Amino acid sequence: MSPKPITVTFTAAELTSIALVATMRSVQNIYGETKSRYGAPDGEGSWEIGLIGCVGEAAAAKYFRRWWSGAVGDYGAADVGSRLQVRATAHPNGRLRVNPPDKDHQPFVLARVDIYKKPASAILCGWLLGKDCKHERYWSDPQQTGRPAFWVEPKYLNDMTELTADAL
């Protein structure tokens, strides 16, 4: 049975705050000469990708009633709390992407983000532990970019209600 998606919406003020964190991250990456990981683009388009990621993270934090700082400059930090990782996409049929070095014990949440409608929103599709994502059946390169990963369809994710705030 597919998990029940949770929709989280943002006011204009909330989206502005999220966009400021995304901008801070982008500027830090430019001036720190930090390269994107796993073949994601640098330069044109990278700011929007960063914003989409930040909206996904903020949506999970809002759902769990946790403060979201954006962890600017702390590349090793969890996205929410001390363990939760969020993978966000603007693709309406997007899947959860987990990479081989990702930590097995951390929960990963799939967030499908729409920043262009009013109100801006993210759909939290579900979650899995990193180790449960790393099965050969999920290994693919669906975008044909030469950067394969573990891509898990939402129907295989756990329901968001099964992930408690204590696990973060």
Explain what the structure shows.
Helix 1 packs across helix 2 (46-63). The chain has one domain. A hairpin with a 5-residue loop joins strand 4 (107-114) and strand 5 (120-129). The model has no long low-confidence stretch (mean pLDDT 90). The protein contains three helices and seven strands. The strands form two sheets. Strands 1-5-4-2 form a four-stranded mixed sheet. Strands 3-7-6 form a three-stranded antiparallel sheet, with no helix packed on it. It has 168 residues and is of the alpha+beta class. The protein is 25% helix and 22% strand.
List key phrases describing it.
alpha+beta, four-stranded mixed β-sheet, 168 residues
In short:
With 168 residues, the chain is an alpha+beta fold. It is 25% helix and 22% strand. The chain has three helices and seven strands.
Strand-helix topology:
Blueprint: E1 6-10, H1 12-31, H2 46-63, E2 85-89, E3 96-98, E4 107-114, E5 120-129, H3 130-133, E6 139-140, E7 149-152
Parallel strand pairs: 2-4
Antiparallel strand pairs: 1-5, 3-7, 4-5, 6-7
Helix pairs in contact: 1-2
Which structural class fits the helix and strand makeup? Answer: alpha+beta
Low-confidence stretches: none
What strand line-up does the widest sheet have?
1-5-4-2
Mean pLDDT figure: 90
Number of helices: 3
* Helix-strand string: EHHEEEEHEE
Number of separate strands = 7
Number of domain modules = 1
Q: Which sheet architecture does the biggest sheet show? A: 4 strands, mixed
How many angstroms does the end-to-end distance come to?
24 Å
Strand content: 15-25%
